[in-house]
């Protein structure tokens, strides 16, 4: 059975990518023009970001949006 990608998985992936680029939650939130608590909520799987937010996040990380939906070994 194939694993479903969840908001928790999305949040973990965002945290992984953000940290790998050296951003704190606060500095990343400023970059994407969102509140730090909202970024934290996404990373904890408490928030389900819409498409506009996903696109802003991907642009800030300089990656295609689909990269937010894969873990490091692309098995998500």
Automatic annotation (TrEMBL):
- HTH cro/C1-type domain: residues covered: 14-68
State the superkingdom.
Bacteria
Cited Pfam families: HTH_3 (PF01381)
Query: Might you report a single GO cellular component term?
Result: cytosol
Instruction: Cite the CDD domains for this sequence.
Output: HTH_XRE
Kindly indicate whether the keyword Transcription belongs to this entry. yes
Molecular function terms from GO: DNA binding; DNA-binding transcription factor activity
Indicate the secretion signal residues: none
Keywords carried by this UniProt record: DNA-binding, Transcription, Transcription regulation
Q: Entry's InterPro entries?
A: Cro/C1-type_HTH, Lambda_DNA-bd_dom_sf, TransReg_Diox_bact_type
Q: Which SUPFAM superfamilies match?
A: lambda repressor-like DNA-binding domains (SSF47413)
Name of the protein:
XRE family transcriptional regulator
Q: Which organism is it from?
A: Paracoccus methylarcula
Q: What is the lineage of its organism?
A: Bacteria, Pseudomonadati, Pseudomonadota, Alphaproteobacteria, Rhodobacterales
């Amino acid at each position: 059975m194939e694993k479903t990608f969840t908001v928790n998985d999305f949040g973990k992936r965002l945290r992984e990518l953000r940290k790998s680029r050296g951003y704190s939650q606060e500095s990343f939130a400023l970059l994407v023009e969102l509140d730090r608590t909202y970024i934290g909520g996404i990373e904890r799987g408490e928030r389900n970001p819409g498409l506009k937010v996903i696109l802003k996040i991907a642009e800030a990380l300089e990656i295609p949006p689909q990269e937010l939906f894969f873990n490091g070994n692309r098995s998500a």
